[in-house]
Design brief:
The chain is mainly α. The protein contains 11 helices and no strands. About 70% of the residues lie in helices and about 0% in strands. The termini are far apart.
């Protein structure tokens, strides 16, 4: 009888490990096209996520540093996904207004405002799947417009800012949930993290060496090294360190 119980326990453990492996595999390998909405879904399905408790203070007045503006703009896109996930139409509209203000600084206000206003109307109807799609389209439009302006570094910083904000959100969730098994999900996957570090490395030298953006590079390098060494089994300490580094980065680049 004892042998049967032990076999059952082992089988359950193996099943749990297999589930974690499947979740991690789904976010790695060839599947690097993980959407921000799906990323939050993956964490929300496994954790006790209180989305509204993860809101930030309103962003400060737009700085004169265009590199920082682009990163902050990306972080606000991440906040849009958070408000969509929380089902909070007022927070979503507030974030959209901040996005419009930051886009104006980069010369895109007139072209992006109609899309943001349309998304706010859809949020009032609480059609959240449609809202998610509109957020994705707005993000793509912002990056395309910046690329057309030959501001490729700014376009890259929008994407990097968005993912850093999303990582900040998910690491807080997982750090506060002791029962969360697959801690890899807080950064999506190591290949996703590697792809973001590679995107950073392709920035122009002047951008990478700027006072503000160099902090992003330093944090990405630390996270990449530690997560690569975790061998797919990150400790609670690694997740906690990741959360601290991201909180420091986001505070320095988006709140001061």
């Amino acid at each position: 009888m004892r042998g049967l119980i032990q076999a059952a326990v082992i089988a359950l453990a193996l099943c749990g490990n297999q589930t974690i492996a499947q979740e991690s595999q789904a976010l790695s390998g060839p599947n690097l096209a993980l959407t921000p909405g799906d990323f939050l879904d993956n964490v929300g399905k496994k954790a006790k996520a209180r989305w509204r408790q993860l809101y930030r203070e309103a962003p400060p007045a737009t700085p004169s540093d265009r590199l920082r503006v682009a990163f902050m703009l990306g972080a606000l896109v991440g906040d849009s996904y958070l408000a969509q996930k929380a089902g909070d139409s007022q927070q979503f509209k507030n974030t959209n207004q901040d996005l419009i203000n930051y886009c104006r600084v980069l010369g895109m206000g007139e072209k992006v405002t109609p899309g943001f206003l349309a998304a706010a109307k859809v949020a009032e109807r609480e059609d959240w799947p449609a809202v998610r799609q509109l957020v994705s389209e707005s993000q793509a439009l912002i990056e395309n417009l910046l690329n057309e302006q030959r501001d490729e570094d700014l376009a890259a910083l929008v994407e990097l800012g968005m993912w850093m904000r999303l990582f900040e959100i998910t690491t807080v969730i997982i750090t506060n949930d002791d029962e969360f098994a697959n801690k890899n999900l807080c950064i999506g996957s190591v290949p996703l993290l590697n792809s973001l570090k590679a995107r950073y490395d392709r920035l122009g030298e002047a951008t990478r060496e700027s006072v503000t953006i160099s902090k992003l590079g330093a944090v990405l390098e630390i996270l990449q090294r530690h997560w690569a060494n975790s061998d797919g089994h990150p400790s609670a300490e690694l997740v906690g360190m990741t959360s601290e580094k991201l909180a420091f980065l986001m505070n320095r680049l988006t709140q001061k």
